[in-house]
Design goal:
- Strand 2 and strand 3 form a beta hairpin.
- The chain has an eight-stranded mixed beta sheet. Strands 4-7-8 form a three-stranded antiparallel beta sheet, with no helix packed on it.
- The chain has one domain.
- The radius of gyration is 16 Å and the shape is globular.
- The protein is 16% helix and 34% strand.
- With 198 residues, the protein is of the alpha+beta class.
């Protein structure tokens, strides 16, 4: 998937009526997932981007290859009898904090998100809006393999947002953001089709 620019992302967020954070202090983080058009699971084919102002108040964007979708293993073997959770696109204000995922530091879900449940146990992602729910399901933002060598999602995501490379750098930005703005993070999930690629 292509790398959208800051202006492309800002344009989509304005069009959708989402808040873009640009506080007076550095590191007011805009954590933005961008879901690829593909509905074939098990690839790290999405982005999690972070837009912020650095110590010199210069606007920056960082790109982290990721998945915003569950892996094939959990689609076929859901933890929940009603199906595997897939986060819905949208903006979720203050729903994450620096906490834990299993035994390491990550962004932990603490507020409700919208999600659907893919229930048919096949090899495709099903975005059936009639199965929409809302709640806290521990859809954390965490890493895959610590060494950054994972090539397939497999068991790394059962509905979480999972960064495959650069997770330590991502968390370092979150730590800086928490010092200036508190331990509360918003997350916006966009779709590749929303972005102007011309």
């Amino acid at each position: 998937m292509f790398k959208p620019t800051i202006q492309q992302i800002k344009g989509v967020m304005a069009w959708k009526g989402y808040t873009f954070f640009d506080g007076e202090k550095p590191y007011d983080l805009n954590i933005i997932g961008i879901r690829s058009l593909s509905n074939i699971p098990n690839s790290f084919d999405d982005w999690i981007t972070v837009i912020f102002r650095d110590d010199n108040c210069i606007e920056q964007i960082e790109y982290f290859p990721a998945t915003t979708d569950p892996g094939l293993y959990w689609l076929k073997n859901p933890m929940n009898v009603n199906g595997t959770a897939i986060m819905c696109e949208g903006q979720y204000r203050g729903v994450y904090m620096i906490g834990r995922h299993k035994d390491y530091k990550a962004l932990e879900q603490i507020g409700p998100i919208d999600f659907i449940r893919d229930y048919d146990r096949d090899s495709l992602l099903d975005f059936d809006s009639s199965r929409r729910e809302r709640g806290i399901i521990k859809a954390n933002i965490h890493r895959a393999n610590k060494a950054g060598t994972s090539t397939q999602v497999d068991k790394w995501s059962a509905g979480c947002q999972v960064i495959v490379r650069g997770f330590d750098e991502f968390m370092a930005l979150c730590e800086k953001g928490s010092k200036n703005y508190g331990n509360s993070f918003s997350y916006t999930l966009l779709n590749e089709c929303d972005l102007d690629v011309s």
